[in-house]
């Protein structure tokens, strides 16, 4: 897992007013109803972000991250993976004692993508039908975001933190949309050589891949409580916001 309930994302380098923060239930094309959280900036956003959480589903870190993106001027939706087998959680967020393993194992790529599409559509309904949207994920969600470079989702690109190449699988050979890979140099889950091999595979497939390796950083270093990694967190924000700025209309 990536974060405890006490973890919160670091602040972005630019700050604006957030005018809406709301939990909601969205419906995918197969009828699945799932928990999500929406945050919107006061200014008209030029890009949107759909946040794919880690293995534990929607929890406070990702709600706070949606707020951070809204502070930076982007519209954001964070959503939960597990409604098909675990239902919509009371209070919308997964509890600290949520047993996620069987639900992670039962999740499917089509289901994850279908829920992502409903989140994309919601962002565009609330902003502009032509809003560029990226998917951005962490750990299990980061792997899915990298995989989505090869899929049919109507996204402008994707960003993944601490993903696993084994989860991306053969999709890496078909990657086409722009990707950012945030790689912890001391990730306990995946050796660095495997991450770098994935970068080259996706580039060979035709995707524009930006890979940033933070030497010595642990899995889940993008956390304001990790004071040793303050500079790395600031650098990540700069890369991600520059990415969304390039993709903006």
Explained architecture:
- The mean pLDDT is 95.
- The chain has 249 residues and is of the alpha/beta class.
- The chain has an eight-stranded mixed beta sheet with strand order 1-2-4-3-5-6-7-8, sandwiched between helices.
- The longest helix has 18 residues, at 109-126.
- It has two domains: 18-97, 3-Layer(aba) Sandwich (Rossmann fold), CATH 3.40.50; 132-249, Rossmann fold.
- The protein has helices spanning 60-71, 83-86, 101-106, 109-126, 140-147, 165-168, 192-205, 230-247, and strands at residues 18-27, 33-41, 48-52, 75-79, 133-138, 157-161, 179-186, 209-218.
Summarize the structure.
This protein has 249 residues and is of the alpha/beta class. It contains eight helices and eight strands.
């Amino acid at each position: 897992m990536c974060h405890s309930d006490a973890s919160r994302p670091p602040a972005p380098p630019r700050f604006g007013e957030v005018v809406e923060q709301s939990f909601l239930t969205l419906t995918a094309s197969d009828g699945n109803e799932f928990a999500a959280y929406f945050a919107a900036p006061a200014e008209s956003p030029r890009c949107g972000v759909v946040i794919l959480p880690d293995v534990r589903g929607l929890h406070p870190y990702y709600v706070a991250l949606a707020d951070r993106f809204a502070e930076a001027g982007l519209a954001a939706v964070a959503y939960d993976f597990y409604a098909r087998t675990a239902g919509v959680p009371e209070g919308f967020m997964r509890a600290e004692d949520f047993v996620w393993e069987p639900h992670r194992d039962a999740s499917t790529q089509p289901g994850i993508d279908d829920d992502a599409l409903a989140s994309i559509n919601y962002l565009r309904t609330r902003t502009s039908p032509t809003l560029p949207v990226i998917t951005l994920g962490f750990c299990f969600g980061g792997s899915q975001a990298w995989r989505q470079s090869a899929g049919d989702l109507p996204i402008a690109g994707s960003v993944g933190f601490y993903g696993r190449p084994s989860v991306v699988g053969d999709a890496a050979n078909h990657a086409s949309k722009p990707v950012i890979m945030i790689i912890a140099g001391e990730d306990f889950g995946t050796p660095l050589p495997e991450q770098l091999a994935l970068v080259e595979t996706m580039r060979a497939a035709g995707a524009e891949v930006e890979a940033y390796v933070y030497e010595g950083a642990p899995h889940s270093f993008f956390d304001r409580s990790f004071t040793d990694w303050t500079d790395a967190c600031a650098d990540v924000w700069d890369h991600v916001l520059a990415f969304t700025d390039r993709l903006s209309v």
